Write a sequence for this structure.
């Protein structure tokens, strides 16, 4: 694996290698294990053409915990704002002798273009591109779901798949790169994915996706779920009205106090996830977001571990076996 561009092409072996490595990385920064020296002397460029807070800070924390040197690049205020092309920007950064590039871009396909164009010969990590993909977000979500499953079933997380887990992804599927990356990764890991959204917020080509499609959240919940992942409405990507009002969206597709009470009444545990930022009172109620069933804060903390794992594996060619004694 030379790049991490999307989850669609990840094999089960690669996905488990990433997740098992992330499990080990989760302990770095705690207790006596404050940093690892594995990327000492290597330079990572964080190339953000699109605004970000959580993802950028998470990658920076991951790089620091691996002892890498960091160059942060933001399009605003740079030569990009003066018309410089992606190719010229990348070649300028390559001249600095960087060892890997983390890129976030508003255009779908920009990271793949960077990886395949031959402009540089460096590992490329996709930190989110348009409405296309966000692989590290999907990996941290999968890591969180593995922890949930391991806790519920009282098993070890290492090597654990999500076989049999029923996951509902709810909300603005149309504009969500998180939903797309989760769909492919969860399917690879054996989960049963249910996409829940109004018809206007679903892509036209979902018939070919490995997922059950629901337009009614109550029906999806009643069909049986082990985890519910709520998505925010991405108003910044909407150029038209996709539903009549926020109130109507909440009534039909939001995780309201009533729907959360229904989940609490079931005789099995159900995890609540959200990639953030949350719009409380719109797609998710505070009761759900702040409850013991919520794994949202665990998702945030797992983000650093997953990005450490991706950087380590891509930049060193190592594997999860490096951190576990031989059987």
């Amino acid at each position: 694996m030379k790049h991490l561009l999307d989850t669609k092409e990840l094999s089960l072996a690669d996905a488990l290698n990433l997740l098992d490595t992330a499990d080990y990385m989760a302990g770095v920064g705690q207790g006596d294990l404050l940093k690892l020296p594995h990327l000492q002397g290597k330079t990572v460029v964080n190339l953000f053409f699109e605004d970000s807070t959580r993802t950028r800070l998470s990658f920076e924390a991951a790089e620091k915990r691996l002892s890498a040197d960091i160059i942060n690049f933001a399009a605003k205020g740079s030569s990009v704002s003066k018309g410089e092309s992606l190719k010229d920007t990348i070649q300028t950064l390559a001249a600095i002798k960087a060892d890997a590039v983390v890129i976030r871009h508003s255009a779908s396909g920009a990271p793949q273009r960077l990886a395949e164009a031959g402009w540089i010969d460096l590992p490329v990590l996709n930190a989110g591109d348009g409405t296309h993909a966000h692989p590290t977000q999907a990996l941290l979500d999968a890591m969180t779901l593995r922890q949930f499953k391991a806790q519920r079933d009282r098993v070890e997380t290492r090597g654990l798949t999500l076989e049999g887990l029923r996951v509902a992804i709810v909300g603005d599927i149309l504009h969500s790169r998180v939903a797309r990356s989760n769909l492919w990764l969860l399917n690879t890991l054996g989960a049963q994915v249910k996409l829940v959204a109004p018809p206007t917020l679903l892509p036209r080509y979902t018939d070919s996706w490995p997922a059950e499609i629901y337009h009614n959240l109550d029906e999806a919940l009643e069909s049986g779920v082990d985890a519910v992942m709520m998505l925010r409405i991405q108003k910044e990507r909407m150029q038209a009205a996709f539903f009549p009002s926020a109130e109507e969206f909440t009534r039909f597709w939001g995780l309201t106090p009533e729907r959360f009470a229904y989940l609490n009444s079931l005789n099995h545990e159900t995890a609540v996830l959200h990639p953030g930022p949350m719009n409380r009172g719109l797609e998710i109620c505070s009761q759900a977001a702040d409850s013991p069933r919520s794994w949202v804060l665990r998702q945030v903390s797992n983000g650093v571990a997953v990005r450490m794992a991706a950087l380590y594996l891509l930049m060193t060619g190592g594997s999860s076996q490096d951190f576990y004694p031989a059987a």
